[in-house]
Write a structure and sequence with these properties.
The complex is a heterodimer of chains A (113) and B (115). Chain A has 113 residues and is mainly β. Chain A is built from no helices and eleven strands. Chain B is globular. Classes of the chains: A mainly beta (113), B mainly beta (115).
């Protein structure tokens, strides 16, 4: 059983560009969340998708947007990239909205130059 | 609001000695508490959780944690540390409100187990 998979693993972009990161949740999981982990920091919640809708959002600007597809996979889009967007982006999935723990992917390392 | 404090940046322990990583939390209502471990250039790996019931929870790789509601703490422990336990450990909390999926993480503790 594959866990949470993310692509690509590494990415280098220029300031002002746009980027799309992808996530396939663990089998049986329908809730997907995205986190940003800056160097030396804990992950920060960006947003969560369930039933193809954004259900919760953290303190991130509108440049950060997402999507969830009918097969529960998800995309994170970031527009007008800033140097400060350089971070490890983590996708997490879990089944439903209850008490279960989240399972994390290996992350996408985004470097903005 | 949800928040976690992990007061120590780094924990050094000799192999075979007990390991403790401290965590205190703040949340409205009842908490769900989690510990994750992160190895270099990897995602987060789940270790254990407290949802309800027994205050002492046991998890993967011999780790356990004790929930203390009065002290709002959830310290991670291992009776005998291994060199392979050297990694970055994160405590996380979310409120038990239905539909809340937002995990708040601490800044992490680097654990170094000395052979």
């Amino acid at each position: 059983d594959a866990g949470v998979t993310q692509s690509p693993t590494h990415l280098i972009k220029t300031r002002g560009q746009q980027v799309t990161l992808r996530c396939s949740p663990k089998s049986g999981h329908d809730t997907v969340s995205w986190y940003q982990q800056a160097l030396g920091q804990g992950p920060q919640f960006i947003f969560q998708y369930y039933e193809e809708e954004e259900r919760q959002r953290g303190n991130f600007p509108d440049r950060f947007s997402g999507h969830q597809f009918p097969n529960y996979s998800s995309e994170l889009n970031v527009n007008a990239l800033l140097l400060g967007d350089s971070a490890l982006y983590l996708c997490a999935s879990r089944p439903g909205q209850g008490r279960t723990e989240a399972f994390f992917g290996q992350g996408t390392r985004l470097t903005v130059v | 609001a949800q928040s976690v404090a992990q007061p120590e940046d780094q924990v050094n322990v000799a192999e075979g000695n007990p390991l403790t990583v401290k965590c205190t939390y703040s949340v409205s209502g009842n908490p769900y508490l989690f510990w994750y471990v992160q190895y270099p250039n990897r995602g987060l790996q789940f270790l254990l959780k407290y949802i309800t019931g027994d205050n002492l929870v046991k998890g993967s790789y011999g780790f356990e944690a004790e929930f203390n509601k009065s002290q709002t703490s959830f310290h991670l422990k291992k009776p005998s540390a291994l060199v392979s336990d050297s990694a970055l450990y994160f405590c996380a909390v979310r409120s038990a409100s239905y539909g809340n999926n937002r995990l708040a993480f601490g800044k992490g503790n680097q654990v170094v187990v000395i052979p």
